[in-house]
Amino acid sequence: MELAQARKARIVPRTGGRALADALVAQGIDHVFAVPGESYLDVLDGLYDVRQKLKLVTCRFEAGAVNMAEAFGKLKGRPAAAMVTRGPGACHGAIGVHVAMQDSTPLLLFVGQIPHEDAGRDAFQEVDYRRMFSPLAKWVTQIDQAKRIPEIVAHATDVAVSGRPGPVVIALSEEMQKDMVEAPDLPRAVVSPPHPDPAALAQLRVMLGRARKPLAVLGGSCWTDAGRVAIRDFLLGNDIPVTVGFRRQALYDGTLDNFAGDLGVGSDPGLIGKAKEADLILAIGSRLGDAVTQGYTLLDMAGSVPIVQVHPDGSEIGRVFRPALGIVADLNAFAHAVAALEPVRTDWVAWTGELRSLREAQRAVPNYQGRLNLGTAMRELESLLDRDALITTDAGNFAGWATRFINFRDGQRYIGPTNGAMGYSVPAAIGAKIAYPDRMVVSMVGDGGFLMTGQELATAFHHGVAPIVLVFNNQMYGTIRMHQERAYPGRVSGTGLTNPDFAKFIEAFGGHGEVVSDTGEFSPAFRRAVASGRPAVIELRMNPEQITTRATIAELRAGRVTKPAAKPKRAAAPKHPKPARGATSGKKRGG
């Protein structure tokens, strides 16, 4: 039907800018996140004509815009578009492309370009985008002829969603946008996803039957709700203990009896030790990358422990670790196929129970020193989150508090940058809230990351969405400070921060601000933030001495967490600013 309609489509002259807007609509793109620039004025004008079909989200910084689009794609499983201007705009937006590439997220980034006649002259804001983005994106191209807009946009969309999903960058020459063109829009392509080989499924079942200590590692992107249900039925039906990759907590219900925790940065040392005892690894969607394999040390690259690796892109299978069985398949198709298999008679009930016990043991909250016990706060947050809440995280040590103490449920989604990009969480939360305006969205971010892109809260106000932002404030770049104390104990250099009053920051926009300094203040503050119906910031004033969920600065300096080291004179811990006069910590402040 769509093809027939496309063939009958009116072919009337239109500008390249309008043709691009129509091409996006034809490919099902319904959101564009942008910082406007003169290099694509004609596209902006074209978007005006399709404003009833495609929402243009005006952002404040290109990194924020691309991260919003990336989060949208992560949650929807289909790409949004981002648009940035040439030169500086493209450079600012590049971080979001890197996030999308390492996270396997479908994304389209359109970049304005200089006029043809100025190319090669080092003209104003000139950049060769093919060279700049080639290591970061699945495909980089440039549209120089307006008549090719429908073709290139259609192919770019196909590339972004096929195989291992990822970002595509399209440069838009300035003259081309003004050219008049007569070209029909192209329909979306319906492509059947790759299904697993039945012989491979039979071999998988044989290998599972021989195992005594199997372990599943879930990863990848673009899982559907039905795919999640199917893979859960397979893993639960065979009582296989399940781990999730770095920042992939959204993929499995953490409350189930076979959930063993996450493999990534800050993982439970007990789980890592048990993972080394496994006699069969089911890597379903996981690339078995750096973070998941603890710096490529968790598994034997030669495959002494059998690995079954399932991935939609055959080039990713065996890239580092040689599998005993590689299965090229769409992850959702694989999930439905294995869910239909007869369960294997298991002999690892005790193994699964042991791993689950480890998970629950690490969720027991220690008696942390200081007024605010973040372990307790996270356990309380677990009960305060809606069953379909969307949680975004930034990069940093603070992220370990949620992943250690919260078991995310099946209906919830937890997303973050697997490439460790700071400044992701706030714009991602705004993108998430725009994608799902009726769902609770909570952003978790450190004080360092918040001041990188926290200004995007202006975008939330501009477009009428209300995320809740938890700012974990320890007045330092915590992850770097941790490494610094391990390598150069007591020699604090470049990692201290001076911060504003974060509650007043959001109040200046007209939002809801809270400061939490004591454990008992957290739950009431969160409830007030939810009830306010406005964008909200809750500043969590942490004990800076508690550098991770498992270590203090003093312990790092004493070498009790890493290799033994002499304990130097202890430096004074940074102090938090006092609450503003007339304000009470933990109480609602301002309008």
Structure described in brief:
By secondary structure, this protein is of the alpha/beta class. Helix content is about 35%, strand content about 15%.
Explain this structure to me?
This protein is α/β, with parallel strands linked by helices. The chain has 3 domains: 2-181, 3-Layer(aba) Sandwich (Rossmann fold), CATH 3.40.50.970; 198-361, Rossmann fold, CATH 3.40.50; 367-558, Rossmann fold. It has 21 helices and 20 strands. The strands form 4 sheets. The protein has a 6-stranded parallel beta sheet, sandwiched between helices. Strand 19 (512-516), helix 20 (522-532) and strand 20 (536-541) form a beta-alpha-beta unit. It is globular and about 70 Å long. Residues 562-591 have low confidence and may be disordered.
Q: Give the overall shape.
A: globular
Radius of gyration from CA coordinates? 25 Å
Low-pLDDT parts are 562-591
Known CATH architecture of the largest domain: 3-Layer(aba) Sandwich
| Overall mean pLDDT | 90
Strand elements, count: 20
Strand percentage lies at 15-25%
Straight-line N-to-C gap = 54 Å
CATH superfamily of the largest domain: Thiamin diphosphate (ThDP)-binding fold, Pyr/PP domains
Q: State the CATH topology of the largest domain.
A: Rossmann fold
The first-level CATH class name of the largest domain: Alpha Beta
Approximate helicity band: 25-40%
Kindly report the oligomeric state of this protein. single chain
| Helical/strand content category | alpha/beta
